Structures are given as structure tokens and as C-alpha cells.
Amino acid sequence: MIDKNIAIKIENLGKRYRIGMEEEASDSIGQALFNVIKSPLKNYKKYRSLYNFKDANANGLHESEDVFWAIKGLNFEVKRGEVVGIIGTNGAGKSTLLKILSKITAPTEGHAEIRGRVSSLLEVGTGFHKELTGRENVYMNATILGMRKKEVDKKFDQIVEFSEVEKFLDTPVKRYSMGMRVRLAFAVAAHLEPEILIIDEVLAVGDAAFQRKCLDTMQDVGQRGKTVLFVSHNMAAVARLCQRAILLDQGKIVKDGPASSTVSMYLTGSMHGDSGARIWPDLSSAPGDHVAKLRAVRTVTEDGQSLDGYDIRHPIGLQMEYEVLEEGNIILPYYEVINDDGVRIFAAVDQDPSWLNRPRPRGRYTSTAWIPGNLLSEGVLYITVAMRTLNRKLRRFFVRDAITFNVVDTLEGGSARGEWAGRLKGAVRPLLKWETQYQKEDGDQALSQTA
Fold first, then answer.
1. pLDDT tens profile 100-125
2. 226-241: average pLDDT
3. Largest CB tally within 10 Å, which of 157, 323, 439, 442?
4. Burial class (CB in 10 A: 0-12, 13-18, 19+), 398
5. Residue 36 has pLDDT above 70, yes or no
6. What was the pLDDT predicted at 58?
7. Pairing of strands 331-339, 379-389
8. CA-to-CA dists, residue 241 to 194, 249, 253, 263, angstroms
């Protein structure tokens, strides 16, 4: 039975390629001439061999070294109206997946089912001819992307207004800057009306204001119930635009979940072992000495969840569990927070009034320091955890970069970003209280407004 709420269904999808063979060097002029004569037949055989996998069995075992799986064993579904980000390093299989979904290439195994009219924007500017004017290229590009001439006529003024290149509309595209071409190409794509839109890295070029316009348009597409697959290396755009993200690594799905946590996993490298939580189950090998030993360190939300990525607007708890093995010491747990530029944002020493200047008895403790929402800036943060004793002034344990986590801003409002879509520099990003006083030019009336 077909589920009408599913727009894209991927089952055991795989794509296999054979890497090209190395050219043979000639030992003499005679051999070189002979190779030239036989090269047409040789090249034909080489071409055919690239698509011949008789030496590879169905399960992929014992394949030749020149057989390469771009993607392997992908399984996921996308519901109608979902905006899903596809992220990963170069060579992870993102573009191969989109080419299969766009019917540019066929899968080696499995199948991809697309339910609805699809438009693909895999390379901004596809179909542009440098000798034609912007006006002529709008019609050509729109036709390639599936629009009829009547549709283009109807939306032409909107496309030009969106692109902001009206002044140069009758100038050949070869005289456009890269940014102008991107504006015009995305303006055409933004006015398509498909049920499923597949987009590959369209926000790599353009100023901050235009990127904001693109984000708003793509967000509007999702809100109108259209399905969007969005591939980008702009993690901030993925986190703001997509509710869900799929992380690919070496052709396989590493994580499929909320965009913020998936983006964090990619940025922090936790798919390779680093994350927002770390545990030492064996006390004998845990960091520390005869006075105290570290059991665990993690980041947590207000409801106790330990994540790799956190919303910039919400409090984040830095939590450590430790064992006090020798009583009679005044214990001082502390943290250092460092950003991905190596800048120490701040250090925090335990200020729990219940234990100030009070020796601690033996036992297990959990100390949590809360970072207020709207204080940290976007990006990857590294947490160093340590402990001192006040009376002996010795460091009992110290673990540099014990955990990492990611802070993500959104377009939902309530953060210091406001309406600005570009990058905001700075080690911190506090949400400040703003006050604006306004006075009319004639001086008759003064208004005060507080934000």
C-alpha cells in the first residue's frame, strides 16, 4: 500500500563506479606510433570496461581495487512538505544521490521512488549562454528547468525584480560578475512551482542580503507544503532552513535526525569519536588521583538531554560527575570554554553556595554549571574540565578538550541575530537590551521606544 504522505522513498540504494585505468607508457617511437593506430579500439574497450562489473559479486566482496562505491545501502523516506538537508564532506556521496534522484544517472542497486513533479537545481547557471543577454538567458534557463513560455511571461517581472539585475538585463551574460549570474539563475529557480525541489549548493556565492532573500524564499517553499532536498556546505543555512538533516560519510548514512544535532555531529567530528559526552566507567583508569577522580563530563539541556548541538537561545549545562576518594578537602570543579579559533571564551569555578568553603565527604558528586541562553556565539566549542583543592592548591585532574558541542542559531527569532542573515563575528553573542529615542525634525514631539 502506497503512503500518500511520502514524497521520496529510498531503499537499499547504491551506485558503483570503476576508476579509470592508468595509461601505459611507450618505450620507443615505434611503439608510440603503433599505440596511436590501435588507440580507437583500445579506448573503446577501456570505455566498456568502466561499466563492466563481472569481477564483482552482488554483495560487494572480493571486488577489484578499482571498483568504487559512491553510495551504498541508503535507506530513508522524506515526507511531503519536509525540508531535508543532505550534508557531509567532499566525496561523501551527496551529489551522486541527487543525480540519481534527478534521473541523471541510474543506481547500481536498490531503487529511488519519487512521487511528484521534480525540479532540480544541481548547478546554478546551468543553461546560461555567455553570448546571450540576461533576458534571453532567463527564458532559456527557465525552459531547461521545465517552465513553459507562458509561465515565464507571467513571472518575468517577478524574476527580474528578485534578481536585482534589471539595469543589466539586456547586457550579454559574459559581462556579468559571478554574483550577478547566481542572482539571475536562482531568481529563475525560485519561481518554479514543482512538488519536489532538489537543490545542490546554491548559496555559495552572493552577498549577505541576497543569501537572506534566498533563505527566505526556500523557507517559504517548504512552508507552502513543497518537499525540498537541500545539499550545502553552509551549515548555518542548513540548520536554519531544514527541520531534518541526513549526514553522509563514505557513501553511507551516519546520522538522520534533527538538523541542529546532525549539523553539530558533522562540525564537531563526533561521527569519528568526539562528542558532547564522555564517560570513564573504570575508576582505576579515570583521570584523577587519590583525592578525586573524574567519572563523566557532558553537556545537557534543561530537561537533562545530552546533545551534540544546542539552540543558541536556550541554556546549556556543563555537567561533570566525579568521585571524592579522600574526605576533608575543599573541592573546586571548574571548566574552560574555548572556541574553534582557539580563543578561551571564559573559565568557570564552582560557585554552589551549599559547598563554598566546606570540605566534602567521600562519595559521588554531580556538578552542573549553567550557561545562559543568548550568550555564546555560533560554532564549535571545546570544554576543558579540571578540579583543584583549595586547601592544598593542587590540580587533581585536568582533561583538555574533554568534550565538544555546537551552538546553532535559527531563523525562528528571539536571538541576537534578529533579521540579519549574514555571519556575526565575535566570541560571544549576548542578546542586549536596546533603547531607541526618536525626535521629529520640527522638535514638536519626541518618542521613546524600547526593544
1. 888 888 898 998 988 887 777 666 55
2. 80
3. 323
4. middle
5. no
6. 47
7. antiparallel
8. 18, 22, 20, 12
